[in-house]
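Let us work through a complete example step by step.
Step 1: write down the sequence.
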Amino acid sequence: MTTLSRRALYYLLVLVVATALFTTAYALGMSVWEGRPRAWYRALEVVIQTFTTTGYGEDAPWQSPQMNLLVIVMQLAGIGFILSAVDVFVVPWLRAALQPTAPTAVAERSGHVVVCGYTPRVEVFVAEMAARGQEYVFVELDAERAARLYEEEHPVLQGDATTTEALRRAHVGTARALVADIADDENASVTLAARELAPDLRIITLAERADLARYHEAAGADAALSPRRLLGRSLAAKVPVAAAANVEEEVRAADDLEFAELVVTPRTPIHGRTLGAVRRKGLLGGRIVGIWVEGTFDTSLDDDQVLDDSTRLFWAGTPDERAALREAMPHSIRPFHAQSILVAGYGDSGHAVCESIRQAGGTVTVLDVEEGEGVDVVGDARDPEALQRAGIETASALVIAVDDDTVATFATLIARELTSDLQILVRAQDEAAVQNLYRAGADYVQALPTVCGRMLAATVLEEEGLASPDPTVSVLRLPIGALAGDSVSTLVPGAQTNYTVLAVCRDGALLTDLDVDLPIESDDEVIVAGTEDGLQQIRDRLSS
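Step 2: predict the structure and record it as tokens.
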């Protein structure tokens, strides 16, 4: 039963009961107080006349105050019923008559994306599609939601996406891809129907429960994405553990050269500035070796690159420069050593965070309210004692991956109170909670709809680079080899290389302020940083 039908039923029941009560009261009142008995049907007639405001006939006026009060109450009740009838019957009828209805078919087209279901993450996804100029068509079963989408000028047809008929009307046979985000069981039915009509169609489904994704793939989906696991991996990519174990011990032992990873967050003073402006003003001191942008490491250092939440910097400098940088940006600088990460919440997101951090060489401690495999400390993230038992004072970062935004906000407040320089990364269930989490002290927040919508767009358009993991970045100390007798200029990498020369080691000292005309001696060593491909290039140059 719809809400409108339920309201109409309640209205009629109240009207019948009120009419019966007033009829009985009127008949008794006329007999007892007025001395003019009336049959029940005459009493009913007067009640109906009162409710409909058509008059009272021969019974008016009444002599007793009790009857006059009863008639006044009936009059007020009658007006109330009339006004209520307008709201219950007339207004919905007018709204239904004036509201546009979604079509049941769309014009023939090809190369579009068929979207089944409408959720906050789908809203982000279609915004990404529109930004890329990619056409899409909604298939929506709910009439009201379909009408609203149609009124907002989205291409939509009303129909059941689990049936071949509705998908045929959406021209799924000539579509580029299909995205299903309804319920887990319905997504499987959508996949089966779509695969029957278009065997070669690219089908992507979303699985609320990660363990059900394999059934979507069994139904024929090309990719079954778990939104919470996507968010977990995305959060883990922001934790500074990449390259942590890849700085050679010989390089670490050098007293004059230190390394750090600078995580750019909204709390960082350089957030929103270009790399060129930061370098010209000397805001960081030392040297910027390379930059991670959306997980991809680059040493070319484009001055126009905007430093935002998607960027991290690989920094090198002297101990004094690092101390000054830590004082200026205590929440952003992270040393390059094996790190201990505290993860609060061990659902799908928390599990994905732990997997990714361990693969990158980090150590993880898991805090969860329920005891289970993989949980190290049982307790509530909102309990200061539980956080302390989990080692928050010695942790390099805290990832809050609980599925309740209110809990996450309170846990962030408590964690920030316990330690002021801890990096806190938080998962948000709803986009509306993001700003509150930042106000509570989070350094970095990712909302489930935003991350999932963007990753869904990357998957549909097969933009694999958007989902690539951090590459391995290493810092090595290499003998100068065949370049002995040349100048430092021969070490300078070209535009197509992916390494950076940090220093030259000579007679136990580090030369970090390199003059390109400085001659290279046979006993010199060079300290370089880069990806495996870039380091292989410098090895080849030193050996040729």
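Step 3: interpret the result. Residues 294 and 310 are 5 Å apart (CA to CA).
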